[in-house]
Design a protein that fits this description.
The protein is an alpha+beta fold. Helices cover 33% and strands 20% of the residues. The protein is built from 15 helices and 31 strands. The strands form ten sheets. A nine-stranded antiparallel sheet has the order 1-7-8-9-12-18-16-15-14, covered by helices on one side. A four-stranded antiparallel sheet has the order 2-3-4-5, with no helix packed on it. It has a three-stranded antiparallel sheet with strand order 6-13-17. A hairpin with a 5-residue loop joins strand 15 and strand 16. Helix 5 runs parallel beside helix 15. It is globular, with a radius of gyration of 25 Å. The two termini are 20 Å apart. About 2% of the residues have low confidence.
C-alpha cells in the first residue's frame, strides 16, 4: 500500500504552528526539501544538502502568522479544513489535497526534477509545484519567504513580468510562475481557475513554455524514479516499507560526488531540551557503509558505485593514512562547528549547529567500514568498474592503519566528546578490515598478502576476546577497560566476528537486553555521557536487536518487534534517529539513514521467500 496520510486543519493556527517530524521529503539527489502536513516547505538547503538553508522554518519557533517569519514556502487553500497527502507510486513526488467545508478543493504536486537528458542526469537546484483546482471555486494564497545566512536574513528581491528573483547568499534563485506575480509577491488570496505552475530554481530565464515544461519534468521524473524502483530486488513482505526507505536513502546521496549524508537536517534534538543538537548533513564513513550495505541487499548498485568514487578520493587524499569519521559532500574535512544566532531551534530548543566537531575525532572503526564498503567491487561482475590491483594497494594502506590502531583508544561510534576508550566495536571493525582484505587478496591471486591479512585478523580477534570478555558477568564489554553495555556489540554478528550459536554472543545478548532494552526499544548505552543520562532510544539499535533475535531463534518475537517499529514511522513511511520509549514520539535528525537501513535489513532478513507465493 502506498504511503498516505490525512490531517485535519480545522483547529486554530496554533496547532498548525507546532513543528513535528511528520514531514515528507522531496528531492533529486542534489536539492531536497521537507514538506509538512499543511503542504509547507519547512527545510531545504542551497546549493547542496550541507549548504545554507533557504527553507529554515523547521528550526524557527515563530508562528506562521508572524510577519517576521522567513524560510518557508506555503500554498494554502483559504478556509481549508482537511488536508490529505500521499506520494505518487514509487516516487518522491508528493501530492497534497486540500479541501474546505464549502466543496472547494485543490491539489498540489511537489517535486524536484530528476531524469536523464542529453546523456546525463538532469538534477537542477530547483523545486517545482503544480497547483490544480479539483472542486468548486477555490481561492489560494501563496507565500514564498526564502531565508539566507543561516536563517538570519531575507534576501533582496526584484521582479519581472512572470518571475521574482531572490539574491540569496548561497546562490541567486528565481521563482518563475504563470500565477499572478503581483498577488504572489504580496501574499494575497486569489481564485484558482486553472492549473498553475511554480518553478523555483537558478536565477535564469525560463526559455520554454512554463506549464508544458513543468508537466513534462514531472512525467520524466516520475518515469525515472519508477524505473529505479523497478530494478530493486525487494523482499516479498513489507514491500511498501522497503521501497519508501530505499527512495529516502537514495535522496540522502549527493549524486554529483557520491557522498551519502546521515540525514537531511541539522539540530533536531535527540530529546526535548537536551542540547544534543547535531548537524547530520555530512558523510560519515560509518553511516554511508551501512547505507550501501542495505541498498546492496536489494540490488541498488548505482549507489554503491558512485559512493566508491567518493571513497577512493577520500582515501587518496588521506594524509599519513588517517581517515576522518566524516567529510562534507565534496570531500572537505574541516567542518568547524558553530551556532546560528538567527534560528531559535526546533520548537525553540536550541542551539542550531552548523558543522560538526566530530570531524577532528579519532574513530578507528572507519578503517573497517572503508574496506567493507569496497571489497564487493573485487568480486561483483555486475559493476561497471570492478576493482583491481591498484585499488587493492590503496586499501592496504587503510588496512595498515587498522592493524596499527586496533587496540588504541578512540572516541567510538557514539562520538563521545569527553573521554576515550579502546572500544570493542572499533577493534572488531579493524578485524573486519584485515579479514576482508584477505578475501580481496585471495580474489586477486595474491596468496602471500592473503596469508598476511588472515594472520593479522586472527591476532586482532584473539586480542579483542582476551581484552573484552568478562567471565564474571558472562558478557563482552563495550570497551577493554570496564564492563559496560553498548548496543553496538550486537553488530558482532553482522560483521561475522562471532557466530549466532557462539555461547559468548548469546550471554552477551542477554546482558544487553537486561541493561538497555526499554520495552520495545533499545538504548545505545545507559551510562552518563557528556550531556548526562540518555533518555530516548536509538532506532537502529532496536533494528540490530531484531536481527540478533532472529539469528538466535527468536524469530516470532523479532517479527513482532519489527511490526512495532514500522508502526512508529511517519505518514511518509520514514523514521528519525531517536524515539521516546514512553510516548513513541520521534526525535533526532530526519530522515535518518541508520533507521531506514534498519527497515530494509530487517525486512530482507525476516520476510517469507518469494517462492512461498509463486
Amino acid at each position: 500500500m502506498e504511503a498516505t496520510a490525512q490531517s485535519g486543519v480545522t483547529d486554530a493556527a496554533a496547532s498548525a504552528d507546532l513543528r513535528t517530524l511528520d514531514l515528507w521529503p522531496i528531492g533529486n539527489c542534489q536539492a531536497s526539501a521537507l514538506v509538512d502536513r499543511q503542504g509547507r516547505f519547512l527545510w531545504g538547503c542551497l546549493p547542496r544538502v550541507d549548504g545554507d538553508p533557504v527553507f529554515s522554518a523547521l528550526l524557527d519557533g515563530r508562528g506562521f502568522d508572524d510577519a517576521g517569519l522567513r524560510g518557508f514556502w506555503s500554498i494554502e487553500l483559504v478556509g481549508a479544513t482537511e488536508v490529505t497527502q500521499r506520494y505518487e507510486r514509487n516516487t518522491p513526488i508528493l501530492v497534497t489535497r486540500m479541501a474546505d467545508g464549502e466543496g472547494n478543493a485543490v491539489e498540489i504536486t511537489d517535486f524536484c526534477p530528476r531524469y536523464r537528458h542529453k546523456g546525463r542526469m538532469y538534477r537542477p537546484v530547483a523545486f517545482a509545484r503544480i497547483v490544480k483546482p479539483v472542486a468548486g471555486s477555490p481561492r489560494i494564497r501563496v507565500a514564498l519567504r526564502p531565508a539566507c545566512d543561516r536563517g538570519a536574513h531575507s534576501p533582496r528581491v526584484s521582479y519581472g513580468s512572470s518571475h521574482i528573483s531572490y539574491g540569496l547568499t548561497a546562490m541567486a534563485m528565481r521563482l518563475t510562475s504563470d500565477a499572478p506575480i503581483g498577488l504572489v509577491a504580496q501574499e494575497s488570496p486569489f481564485r484558482l481557475e486553472r492549473p498553475l505552475h511554480f518553478f523555483f530554481g537558478p536565477d535564469e530565464s525560463f526559455s520554454d513554455e512554463l506549464g508544458l515544461s513543468v508537466a513534462r519534468m514531472c512525467e520524466e521524473t516520475r518515469r525515472e524514479w519508477q524505473g529505479w524502483v523497478r530494478g530493486l530486488a525487494i523482499p516479498l513482505e513489507w514491500q511498501e516499507a522497503v521501497i519508501r526507505a530505499a527512495i529516502a536513502l537514495k535522496l540522502c546521496q549527493h549524486e554529483d560526488s557520491g557522498a551519502i549524508v546521515a540525514a537531511l537536517t541539522t539540530s533536531i534534538p535527540e530529546h526535548a531540551d537536551s542540547g544534543r543538537n547535531w548537524d547530520y548533513r555530512f558523510c560519515w564513513i560509518r553511516d554511508a557503509y551501512y547505507t550501501v550495505q542495505a541498498l546492496n541487499r536489494i540490488g541498488a548498485l548505482d549507489v554503491l558505485e558512485t559512493y566508491l568514487e567518493y571513497l577512493r578520493n577520500i582515501v587518496d587524499a588521506a594524509e599519513g593514512g588517517h581517515i576522518q569519521p566524516l567529510y562534507d559532500v565534496r570531500g572537505n574535512g574541516a567542518l568547524e562547528e558553530t551556532e546560528a544566532a538567527g534560528l531559535g531551534g526546533y520548537r525553540g530548543m536550541g542551539p542550531v549547529r552548523f558543522g560538526n566537531a566530530a570531524w577532528y575525532q579519532v574513530q578507528h572503526d572507519a578503517y573497517g567500514q572503508i574496506i567493507l564498503s569496497s571489497v564487493q567491487a573485487f568480486i561483483d561482475q555486475r559493476l561497471l568498474r570492478p576493482s583491481g590491483i591498484e585499488d587493492y594497494e590503496a586499501l592496504e594502506k587503510v588496512g595498515e592503519r587498522a592493524w596499527a590502531v586496533h587496540d588504541q583508544p578512540d572516541a567510538g561510534l557514539w562520538e563521545l566528546r569527553g573521554r576515550t576508550h579502546v572500544h570493542t566495536y572499533s577493534a572488531a571493525m579493524c578485524w573486519a578490515a584485515c579479514d576482508r582484505l584477505a578475501h580481496a587478496a585471495e580474489q586477486l591471486g595474491l596468496a602471500d598478502r592473503a596469508a598476511l591479512w588472515t594472520g593479522r585478523a586472527a591476532a586482532i580477534h584473539r586480542r579483542v576476546m582476551d581484552a573484552a570478555w568478562r567471565p564474571e558477568s558472562g558478557a563482552i564489554s563495550a570497551n577493554f577497560e570496564d564492563d559496560e553495555r553498548d548496543a553496538s556489540l550486537l553488530q558482532l554478528l553482522d560483521m561475522r566476528f562471532l557466530a549466532p550459536d557462539d555461547p559468548r554472543f548469546r550471554t552477551t545478548l542477554d546482558a544487553l537486553e537486561k541493561a538497555l532494552r526499554r520495552g520495545n526499544h533499545m538504548l545505545r548505552y545507559a551510562s552518563a555521557d557528556d550531556f548526562g543520562l540518555p533518555v530516548t532510544a536509538f532506532n537502529v539499535c532496536t533494528f540490530w536487536l531484531i536481527e540478533a533475535l532472529h539469528h538466535v531463534g527468536r524469530s516470532t518475537e523479532a517479527r513482532a518487534l519489527f511490526e512495532e517499529m514500522l508502526s512508529r514511522r511517519t505518514a511518509a513511511g520514514l523514521l528519525s534517529e531517536d524515539i521516546d520509549p514512553a510516548t513513541g514520539e520521534l526525535w533526532g535528525n530526519y530522515p535518518q539513514t541508520y533507521s531506514l537501513v534498519g527497515i530494509i535489513n530487517c525486512a530482507v532478513l525476516l520476510s517469507k521467500p518469494w517462492s512461498s507465493f509463486r
